[in-house]
Amino acid sequence: MDGQNVPLMAGSIQPPIAAVRSGRTVISESAVAKVAGLAARTVPGVRTLGSGSGRSLGTAGVHAEVGATQTAVDVKLVAEYGTELQQMADGVRAAVYVAVENLVGLSVSEVNVEVTDVHLPDSAPEKLLGRSRHSAFAERAAAAYRPAENGGQL
Amino acid sequence: MTGGTARHRESGSLTGHNRISTQALTSVARGAAAEIFDVQPADVRVSFADDGGLLALSLSLPLGIPPLAAVVRDPGRVPAYGGPIWSRAVQAKAMILDRVSGLTGSGLGRVNIRITGVRATERSRVR
Does the beta-carbon distance from A85 to B122 stay under 8 Å? Predict the structure, then answer.
């Protein structure tokens, strides 16, 4: 097998590339998790990965377990209020399957999706500008407080 | 990526489970109640219990009502807000049940509503 086209001499040059079968390729869990996380984030209705609190970079909320040929992925995410959660979770699963199988090349054994929280409109104090006139919640809140504010400021 | 998604969906080979946490379920219930009763999501308190295998959802919240002085001047304000408090709560039960079970896919058996107060809010009479 080895000796057919390569002279077995000490210090000889390496065998032809086609014959090389030694060496391992290791794809780390964080690489798989990153690919899975990017795929999950593209699904409509996904707000952030992880359990909220505004972390959106890295592999927060995604855990991958990598074996020799297979990988299993767990995704935790916060959804946007108004999306159908089961449907969105199935979409996340499909996106992770496709991305990991096509980009990483490992076969996916399972993808578990956990919706840790749902983000309600205006429940996060991120847009204070103009009090978000488009939101029904904010509009009513503003209506309730306006008389007092006007009296005090104008 | 899209083509691949279709292929996978057709073959039905996707395994894994979906889990919706209690916190997520609570937020959905809070959002639905806030939407239907015209209050802030933060004002709604939510708890879950068992209803013979289904979920029983209990909500306590204050209700938005028109200012009483405005009602005295114009009794038409009450229907504009959806009618008396009692009938609004009765109607809302089915709406909240549909909304929450539609969004989360959970089997809801009943919705209990406890009105803990009223918030007089002025809002536009035209919709």
Answer: no
